[in-house]
Write a structure and sequence with these properties.
Rossmann fold; Rna Polymerase Sigma Factor, Chain: A; 4-stranded mixed sheet; 11 strands; 15% strand; globular; binds nicotinamide-adenine-dinucleotide; binds magnesium ion; isoprene biosynthesis; DXP_reductoisomerase; NADPH binding
């Protein structure tokens, strides 16, 4: 079998490095065509040395120059590209059979969309693409003849728990509910009063998963689960009423599908992103992901609780945005990205995140943008207007 070409967007991040870990286990199956990241020169250089891609993208220009220099010195024949358009270019290369979309935030949308239009097999980690532009993204996948495989562990679990060849009708598949599990994050047991005082360092220390900063804060506020509800809506054509969230602190049951006949099908495993990554890479086959088997005798109890929407209003806001439709999810996402950055920067407190998101949903026009350009313009407008009002 000829190795399949893979492009990794967001190569230096948590998902990117886990993806390359899986690639390294199967050199006969995968060949890295391009690696792309924002500005982490050292890490991308090491990855270039190990995986010898044809192209390396550093979106930041200075970082690109630095990388070029280092690759030249090392005599490595990798072509370095820069700028946001380079992301779209590598996402559509003819040699790319699959594209791992693992850039964080709405910044990942244009390249993921380009891969969809080019009919690639898209391994989607960047949930924000679907939150911001679900309708456009799903049409691009259909029209481009792309294959969309969810990498987000919950959606990967649901994909595995739905019938093979699921065609986008819960009704036809006999599904009553899609049940997303949530770990509850590091602050699950804190009171409202305590939540006001938590620090970025505490928020970034997730009990079960090691992830990038943005998604770690999202997990702590439960906005991550909110974004995932919207992601599930688009991926599985599921109305908000058919999506439930259950807090399951052990993160062993990665999500479930409840059927009409009373059956519940779930996917279980160790909390290690290499499992859903490898599944998406090899589907419908299964390959070694370097993940240890689940040891049932070593497991503590598996417990389940109702999410508390009072203490964690972000989840409620995301459900509301999904129900409002139009650009509400895009506004929610833009406001959340601004709020998370401001929290990490010490400009606002943790509970300032839901506050800012709620204000934004009340203040901006939520009617649906007709085109991608209009949507991106709205995204920029929300960001700049909120950023201008932040305390320094
Ligand atoms: P991360 O912060 O560890 O890595 C982000 C990557 O994106 C880096 O390679 C960075 O260079 C790149 N990047 C950032 N801004 C960019 C920009 N403007 N242009 C181009 N590249 C840019 O993040 P992560 O935890 O790997 O998460 C990546 C995506 O995967 C997010 O959308 C996240 O929600 C999703 N996801 C992550 C996990 C996880 O376990 N980490 C699980 C599920 C879903
Ligand atoms: Mg997830």
């Amino acid at each position: 079998m000829k190795p399949q070409g893979i492009v990794v967007l967001g190569a230096t991040g948590s998902i990117g490095t886990n993806t390359l870990d899986v690639v390294a286990r199967h050199p006969e199956r995968y060949r890295v065509v391009a690696l792309a990241a924002h500005r982490q020169v050292d890490r991308l250089f090491d990855q270039c040395r190990q995986f010898r891609p044809v192209f390396a993208v550093m979106v930041d220009e200075q970082a690109a120059s630095a990388l070029r220099l280092r690759l030249n010195e090392a005599g490595l024949p990798v072509e370095v590209l820069t700028g946001v358009h380079a992301l779209e270019m590598v996402a559509t290369l003819p040699e790319a059979d699959m594209v791992m979309a693992a850039i964080v935030g709405a910044a990942g949308l244009p390249s993921a969309l380009a891969a969809a239009r080019a009919g690639k097999r898209i391994l989607l980690a960047n949930k924000e693409s679907l939150v911001v532009a679900g309708q456009l993204f799903m049409s691009a996948v259909r029209e481009g003849g792309a294959t969309l495989l969810p990498v987000d562990s919950e959606h990967n679990a649901i994909f595995q728990s739905l019938p093979d060849g699921y065609l986008g009708s819960l009704e036809q598949a006999g599904v009553r509910k899609i049940i997303l599990t949530a770990s509850g994050g590091p602050f699950r047991q804190l009171s409202s009063a305590e939540l006001h005082g938590v620090t970025p360092a505490q928020a970034c220390k997730h009990p079960n998963w090691v992830m990038g900063q943005k998604i770690s804060v999202d997990s702590a506020s439960l906005m991550n689960k909110g974004l995932e509800v919207i992601e599930a809506h688009w991926l599985f054509n599921a109305p908000a009423d058919n999506i439930d969230v259950v807090v399951h602190p052990q993160s062993v049951v990665h999500s479930m599908v409840q059927y009409r006949d009373g059956s519940v099908v779930a996917q279980l495993g160790s909390p290690d992103m290499r499992t859903p990554i490898a599944y998406a890479m090899a589907w419908p086959e299964r390959i070694d992901a370097g993940v240890a088997s689940l040891d049932f005798f070593a497991l503590s109890n598996l417990t389940f609780e109702r999410p508390d929407l009072e203490r964690f209003p972000c989840l409620k806001l995301a459900f509301e945005a999904l129900r409002s439709g139009g650009d509400a999810p895009a506004v929610l996402n833009a406001a959340n990205e601004v709020a998370v950055a401001a929290f990490l920067n010490g400009q606002i407190g943790f509970m300032g995140i839901p506050e800012l998101v709620e204000q934004a949903l009340g203040r901006f026009d939520l009617s649906a943008s007709a085109t991608l350009d209009a949507l991106l313009e709205k995204d920029r407008e929300v960001r700049s207007s909120l950023e201008a009002r932040l305390p320094l």
